[in-house]
Design goal:
By secondary structure, the chain is mostly helical. It has helices at 14-22, 28-45, 52-63, 72-87. The relative contact order is 0.16.
């Protein structure tokens, strides 16, 4: 795990990276391909008790910004997408 690409991304620590690996996400490209909502839902589906902070951490990692600095409108869109994803 020393050369773990996910650990090099902003906002993602060891636990977040391990959770993402458990869902089959091992690279920035795979994370970007799934997107923040589907990636977060995949982690939750595996039984990990991730909070919505992980959703924002993933979104921030994809934009290379701290998750606290994400646009509030974008955060609201993520929550809406999450609700729609969970309704399926």
């Amino acid at each position: 795990m020393v050369n773990d690409e996910l650990l090099k991304l902003r906002n993602l620590g060891k636990t977040s990276a391990q959770w993402l690996h458990a869902t089959g996400i091992h690279s920035l490209e795979e994370l970007r391909s799934r997107g923040p909502v589907a990636s977060y839902c995949a982690v939750r589906a595996r039984g990990f008790r991730a909070s919505k902070s992980l959703l924002f951490a993933i979104a921030g990692a994809l934009q290379d910004v701290h998750w606290n600095d994400l646009d509030p409108v974008y955060k609201a869109q993520l929550i809406k997408q999450l609700e729609q994803f969970q309704e399926r």
